[in-house]
Every structure is written in structure tokens, then in C-alpha cells.
Amino acid sequence: MGFLNLFIVAVMPVLKIILITAIGLLLALDRMKLLGPEAKHHLNNIVFYVFSPALAASSLAETMTFKSFTTLWFMPVNILITFVLGSALAWLIIKITRTPKHLQGIVIGCCSAGNMGNLPLVMVPALCEEPRNPFGDPSVCSRNAKPYASLSLSIGVIFMWSYVYGIMRMYANKSIESSTTGVNSPRDTSETVSGSCTQAALPSSDCNTSHLPRTISSESSTRMSGLMKIMMRIKMISGKIDLKKMFAPAAIAAIVGFIIGAASPIRKLMIGNSAPLRVIDGCAHILGEATIPCVTLIMGANLLIGLKGSDVSRNVIIGIIAVRNIFLPLSGIGVVKAAHHFGLVGSDSLYQFVLMLQYAVPPAMSIGTMTQFFQLGQGETSVIMLWTYAVAAVTLTLWSTFFMWLLT
């Protein structure tokens, strides 16, 4: 298939996303008042607790078996690689642009965490529905597309609310502590540690200094052994992982769906036209179908905040765009091709396409949710999201076309 034909196939799902996103943005305008802050909050909760779990459970239960899962084991590793590479590149951006402290966690989050749930759920099935798609019969392609996208969603949620949430919370605490220290007078330095910890009012903040002397000197702290520092750092990071958010409803539903699909007796009870409990799978399937339009509308409503602007540096935005749209997709091609060369990934071109796509998507919308938790950098995050998604409308089409050309 020629490059132009592949481009036409790739641009169609992106256009669908843009159109639905634009509708969500219009519904969020003050004149419409149909998707305002309160309505968006309630719809987001319904998607988070009902629609996304139903989609993950039904799609995995219908198509996933234990044998097929053994061929998909590389996807969690691939997603972990995207997070690690993105974090390393974000560190370079912070050093080069001298990013302010209150934005450093946001930069790391935007560079490391991609939209591996919503966009693949929309794009991959839409690609399969195109009559000239390079992945074979549309019905077979669509049957495989949703499990790939649902597994990407579930694993991405786990990494998002463990790895990224912990990092952003740590930087948010540091930012609040530094701002608190800045307003203290020089005479109050003996109480800086306890004061900054008391005022860093983020949930589950690890400011446990009651066992340390109040007048601990800087000299004694420098004599602390390297092993003790490492242990304290590990304890601090582990204490910031929120297991309740790490195992979000979509992740739990994915585990349930995999158990149903892998356990043959349970599968025969619930999956299939003659299954006695097929009505349960049918209900979950109907609810799951509402996920794609709802999350896309919410994404458009969230982008409206970015139109109001903020004082975030232009260099920071350019750096994040470069990481997510140039360096990570190039790295993804190398990682997936190397994995295929060493036999870690099978020959399924659709599966390889999803793995590469995980490197090319814009930042995850959950980053904005986390900034709302911390009440820090919400306006800057909205501006970053606005520009990265505007650029991704073009780059995601081009990268999708190039990925399909490589794989076919």
C-alpha cells in the first residue's frame, strides 16, 4: 500500500477525534453551559468508575485467553520503557530551560506519561474499520484492536497512579516547602524543618521528623552514611504510592476480564451466544461502548482552560512537544524493532503498531487531574495540554502513517 493511501487511512481516526473534541470544547463554553465544571466532574466520574471498567472487562473477557496473554507480556515492559525514557528527557528539559520548581513535576509527568488509554481506544478500532487498512480483515482487526487498547489503558493507569503520581507529589511537596522556607526569617532556621513539613498540606505527606533532634546541624546531616540516605529515599518514595489509585477501577476490571477469558469454565458461562450468563457480558459491552465518545468530549472540555493562557515558558512547551512528538516516537521504533528482532514480540503488525503508538501519543489527561489534587500549576498544565494536543493532531497522523509503512 502506498504512503499516500496509508496517510488517508491514518488521518481519518485523527479527524474523528478532532471533531468530537471540538464538540466537547463547544459544550464547555459559557454560552452552552452543558459541560461546565460540575457536569464535567460528574461525567468524568461515570467514565472512571463505570464506562472504562466495563470496556476493559468486556473486551478482554471476549478475546483474551491465557495463551494470548503470553504473547502480550511485552506491553507492560514497553510502557515502562516509555515512562523511563520520558523522565530522562524531562530531566534534560528542566536543566536546559531552568524550569521553575513548581513546574518540574508537571514537566516530568507530561514527558513520561502518554495518553495510552483514550487515544488508542479511539484510534486503533477506527483504523481497523477503514476498508483499506493494512492490518487485514476489518472484523478480525477490530476484534483484536480493543483488547490491545484496553490492556494499554489498564497498564497505563497502574503506572500513572504509582510512578507519575509519586513523582509529581514529591515535587509539589518540595515546591510548597521551598515557598514556606522563603517567607521565614533567618532567625527561624532552627524550626524550618518542622515548620515546612507542617505547612506542606498535601495528602499523606511524609514529613516525619519527630524522631530527629530539633537542632540537628547541617554538619551532622552531611556525615549521614550513603546507605542511610538511600534507605530514607526508598521509604519516602514508597510512602507516596497510593495503592487505591494505582489499582483504579479500569485496572481491576482488566484483571477480572482476563480471569474470565483465561478460565475456560467461567468463560463458557459468560461469553458466547449460548452462554447462560451472556446477559452480563452484553450489559458490560453496551456500557463500554459509551467510553470513547465520553472521554473525547471530556478531553475537549479540558482544553478550554488552556485557551485562557498562563505564564508558562515557551521553551518548556517546545521542549515537551519535542520529547513527545520527536524523540520518544523515534525511540519507540528502535525499541519495538529490537524486541521483534530478539523474538520478544510476535509478527502481528497490529500489535507492533500499538506498541509504537504508545510512544507517539500526547501527554495523559490524568496529569491535569493530579494538578487539581495538589492545587498547583493547573493553568500551566492546561496550556501545555492545549499546545501538545494541537501539535499532536498533525504529528500523530504522520507517525501513524510512518508506523504502518514500516510494518507493512
UniProtKB/TrEMBL annotation:
Role of this protein: Involved in cellular auxin homeostasis by regulating auxin metabolism. Regulates intracellular auxin accumulation at the endoplasmic reticulum and thus auxin availability for nuclear auxin signaling.
Intracellular or extracellular location(s): Endoplasmic reticulum membrane
Pfam families, sorted: Mem_trans
GO molecular function: transmembrane transporter activity
PANTHER family membership: EFFLUX CARRIER FAMILY PROTEIN, PUTATIVE-RELATED, PTHR31651
Protein name per the record: Auxin efflux carrier family protein
Transmembrane segments annotated in the record for this chain: 6-29, 73-94, 106-127, 147-168, 246-266, 286-305, 317-338, 350-374, 386-407
Keywords: Auxin signaling pathway, Endoplasmic reticulum, Membrane, Transmembrane, Transmembrane helix, Transport
Chief place where the protein resides: endoplasmic reticulum
Region (Disordered): 201-220
Entry GO CC: endoplasmic reticulum membrane; membrane
Keyword Repressor: no
